[in-house]
Amino acid sequence: MLSxxxxxxxxxxxxxxGGSGDIVTxxxxxxxxxxNGKVKLxxxxxxxxxDEKYRIExxxxxxxxxxxxxxxxxxxxxGPQVVPGSKESQPAxxxxxxxxxxxxxxxxxxxxxxxxxxxxxxxxxxxxxxxLALALRERGARVGLLDADIYGPSLHILLGVHDQPKPGxxxxxxxxxxxxxxxxxxxxxxxxxxxxxxxxPMVAGVVKKFLQDVEWGDLDYLMIDLPPGTGDAQxxxxxxxxxxxxxxxxTPSEIALVDxxxxxxxxxxxxxPVLGIIENMSTFVCPHCGDKTDIFASDGxxxxxxxxxxxLLGQIPxxxxxxxxxxxxxxxLRSDIDSPIxxxxxxxxxxxxxxxxxxxx
Length: 361
Ligand SMILES: Nc1ncnc2c1ncn2[C@@H]1O[C@H](COP(=O)(O)OP(=O)(O)OP(=O)(O)O)[C@@H](O)[C@H]1O
Ligand SMILES: [Mg+2]
Prior knowledge:
Elements: H1 4-10, E1 29-35, E2 38-44, H2 50-65, E3 72-78, E4 110-117, H3 125-138, E5 143-147, H4 155-159, E6 166-167, E7 173-174, E8 176-178, E9 181-185, H5 200-212, E10 219-225, H6 232-240, E11 245-250, H7 254-269, E12 274-285, E13 292-293, H8 300-308, E14 312-318, H9 320-328, H10 332-335, H11 340-355
Parallel strand pairs: 2-3, 4-10, 4-11, 5-9, 5-10, 11-12, 12-14
Antiparallel strand pairs: 1-2, 6-7, 8-9, 12-13
Helix pairs in contact: 3-11, 5-6, 7-8
Magnesium ion (MG) is lined by residues 125-126, 149, 154, 225.
């Protein structure tokens, strides 16, 4: 039998901010609600240190999620560092009619599935997928991250994850919990040095497995990082689940724009909505003199948005810190929440949450 006391007792295993004492003894548990196998834990953490916040949240989630009889876990943190939207501030639900086609089966518990795609490789899809997922999480959403780039999975590297997925309780595979996100990637399962040669049906099999056999639980957004182009992974995704929409990433250069338009058309062709375009590696601001240089030309995202009538969701500057953060496994949104890059990602997250609101928590 699940009880408040039993749960509180177990949470004594979680060290408090800074490692001195545990979260129960230090009075960090604000509330424990148990209803029909659903557990909602509310913590009060007076810290602005996100590493600590996420460490504590993840540890609590892990403990509760592994309890027998628990169907769903929500860990909510209140305190000076969290700015969840209030119910009143949430805009109305998006108009009906955008609902996906009937033959695709939704993933139970997952409210929105957002694919991050591009026509051309190396334009920053994975970087954007990770930072956007962290930005949505920062705004209080429950977020999953699926690396569907089975040819070159990179999300585990960008996030610096060294754990392995474990067998799930209700489904075959439990995603890895990291930075407050639920992450699944083929990168966990394959050897970095061994290239995997994939045939179309194998690609389809893995993508379907990740969608259907991973214990995603209740999520507001499942972000999916796709390989470049318009191949088997993209098609399997849009044919297996009803995606809420795709975000097309492009650099501002003409050559990238041609490919971006192809990507856009592919999603339109299979009746999957395109949420908009993100222009990445736009203007470079010299950290020494402040001069602006358009290394990959300028405003290409705006031009393609005007041409195709897909919304321009954001323009992310070119910044060496983004590359360095990716190499170190420290995405910008975690290392410097106040940077212009992080702000640009938070603005995109706000636009997504405005269009596809989640319940205030
Ligand atoms: N705004 C940016 N400023 C500086 N570097 C960036 C930016 N966005 C991405 N990068 C860097 O560009 C490289 C490619 O980015 P990323 O791997 O995210 O692209 P991708 O589109 O996912 O590539 P692929 O098509 O191979 O999957 C990485 O080294 C990344 O750190
Ligand atoms: Mg990638």
